[in-house]
Amino acid sequence: MAKSSSEQGSYAPKNILITGAAGFIASHVTNRLVKNYPSYRIVALDKLDYCSSLKNLNPCRSSPNFKFIKGDIVCIDLVNHILISEEIDTIMHFAAQTHVDNSFGNSFEFTNNNVYGTHVLLEACKDTQNRIKRFIHVSTDEVYGETDMETDIGNPEASQLLPTNPYSATKAGAEMLVMAYHRSYGLPTITTRGNNVYGPNQYPEKLIPKFVLLAMKGEKLPIHGNGSNVRSYLYCEDVAEAFDVILHRGVLGHVYNIGTKKERRVLDVAEDVCRLFGLSTKEAISFVQDRPFNDQRYFLDDQKLKKLGWDERTPWEEGLKKTMKWYTENPNWWGDVSLALHPHPRISMGAHSNDESWSLQNETATTKESAVESSSGGLKFLIYGRTGWIGGLLGKLCEDRGIEFEYGRGRLEDRRSIMEDIKRVRPSHVFNAAGVTGRPNVDWCESHKTETIRANVVGTLTLADICEEKNLLMMNFATGCIFEYDKDHLQGSGIGFKEEDTPNFTGSFYSKTKAMVEGLLKEYKHVCNLRVRMPISSDLGNPRNFITKISSYQKVVNIPNSMTVLDELLPISIEMAKRGCRGIWNFTNPGVISHNEILELYRDYLDPQFKWENFDLEEQAKVIVAPRSNNEMDGWKLKKEFPELLSIKDSIIKYVFEPNKKA
Ligand SMILES: NC(=O)c1ccc[n+]([C@@H]2O[C@H](COP(=O)([O-])OP(=O)(O)OC[C@H]3O[C@@H](n4cnc5c(N)ncnc54)[C@H](O)[C@@H]3O)[C@@H](O)[C@H]2O)c1
């Protein structure tokens, strides 16, 4: 039922700006205020980050007292413009980077959004000269730091702030600015510090929706550490009501805890979810590595807000049931969330925030809507190398798996064109399968050195540099042809070159440029360098396929080498992107296989009449321009990450010869 503010108490806002409105908590607050207070105008601002969705605002989108603006709070011009043009008198500031796991990966994004973004809002309020009558700053229980397990006294609002992780540190930093603007400029602020919230609309990187979605898929629920950490959970609608109360009756300059005394261990939450889905806890739960730091408990004194007239209404069992019902009825709300469901998701942020543009709209246009849909799942690849072998296969793989992707239109060495691609595609990850390898083989590079440098050195480094700047993970298909057997890695010894080894083969110009670039890429933290070698695929009609090549040569050398079976390893590169793998990886199947062993398989599986001739390296040197590298790569690192990875011989049989035989 519509309410008037006088029924609620003394403060009567006119035009409220709600930041982060398409996110979880703020969407519930926005929907509630739009519905219950038709006389208030609600302006919702959100940059539509990976964790937000305009669908969260469906209940109020057609209301005349609602307006949505897509934009970033760090943009001072936008914020000033909104405050003036919308005649804002009240701000409810929810926008933030909120996922603790991500803050261990990229805390600068947290400082930028949570501290700098709040600072921008405060400064803009100051400049309106007293037109802002109420600024509600939304903070978190985590700013108090960990509570002693033994105590039964919750943190009162006057407690010291002792944050322990980068997320809570930025939230505490923002609070300090709010406090300072209240004292220095008399800004009418109120701060809230809330316990964990759960319910519909929450992006599934957070514990409860993640457990519910995993249980729905019949997958294991990962528990960080031993699951003994305790958290207090409030149902989203109760929290929306708390904000309603604070908006109308909160006292300026005060801080309010939004809390509950009911606590439960993470393990208890998992057990309750299992029970609701009829799963056996023993089978459905798995214990995974803990976070770098995981507070044991956040316990709040909840009396102050109770005195203002608010109380928790929804019992845990009821809230959890409602949440489960909502996720089962809306399984695709967030699109492909496989990234978020990982035990330690590190979602690439900043990809969707662009400093150069913002847009205003009364309602969402369809184009905007589709942009949101694509970003909400968190997975969208920008692939370079469309006309290349690996780039082409990657695109097909994405198509088959329903992963959104687009090919880059720009040239790698042209910084501007790459920036345009990123702006257009808004990717979650960039794959670089572009570069020159030489046609028909690497000898081409010996006579085309500047072209080789332009693509393989300038291009790759430019792309890496942009990805670093934009916080995007770049999966770079590099080469393992930068090593050759030496006295420490003798042929047949089983001792392979490791990821940390320095390249020792620069015999060809191609390998020389690749080795140089690999050395420089180590300085970029957002690059995952995949050392591919002698790629093989099930498509024997492709002249680039190593098996196709050697089966057509008049004579072949017979040396054992590490090789890459693309049919098995390209899907792994996608999984690595999802897992946020970085650094150098030997991207070959474990072990080595000799040319003759491959040709024997070729004869046995495909052509009993097949014959070939060998020659030695000296003879080979007479028919090629640049020397070739032969080596064994140590496959341990990749095998440890993907224990199911097949040895090179088994992989060739499974992915190449068996299917071709059947055909
Ligand atoms: N979820 C909880 O359990 C919980 C508990 C206590 C406090 N909080 C606080 O409540 C607030 C909302 O949390 P939530 O769980 O709803 O978060 P959420 O991650 O679901 O939503 C955050 C929203 O902010 C938007 N956003 C982020 N940076 C922005 C920017 N620079 N400009 C414009 N929009 C931006 C995002 O697009 C998203 O829609 C946060 O300030 C958080 O610190 C959350």
TrEMBL record:
It catalyses: UDP-alpha-D-glucose = UDP-4-dehydro-6-deoxy-alpha-D-glucose + H2O. Keywords: Isomerase, Lyase, Multifunctional enzyme, NAD, Oxidoreductase. Pathway: Carbohydrate biosynthesis. Its cofactor is NADP(+); NAD(+). Residues 352-371 are annotated as: Disordered. Residues 17-323 form the NAD(P)-binding domain. The keyword Coiled coil does not apply. It comes from the Eukaryota. Residues 356-371 have a biased composition (Polar residues). Pfam families: GDP_Man_Dehyd, RmlD_sub_bind. GO terms for molecular function: dTDP-glucose 4,6-dehydratase activity; isomerase activity; oxidoreductase activity; UDP-glucose 4,6-dehydratase activity; UDP-L-rhamnose synthase activity. Its EC number is 4.2.1.76. Residues 380-528 form the RmlD-like substrate binding domain. GO terms for biological process: UDP-rhamnose biosynthetic process. In the C-terminal section; belongs to the dTDP-4-dehydrorhamnose reductase family. In the N-terminal section; belongs to the NAD(P)-dependent epimerase/dehydratase family. dTDP-glucose dehydratase subfamily. This is UDP-glucose 4,6-dehydratase. It comes from Tripterygium wilfordii. The lineage of its organism: Eukaryota, Viridiplantae, Streptophyta, Embryophyta, Tracheophyta.
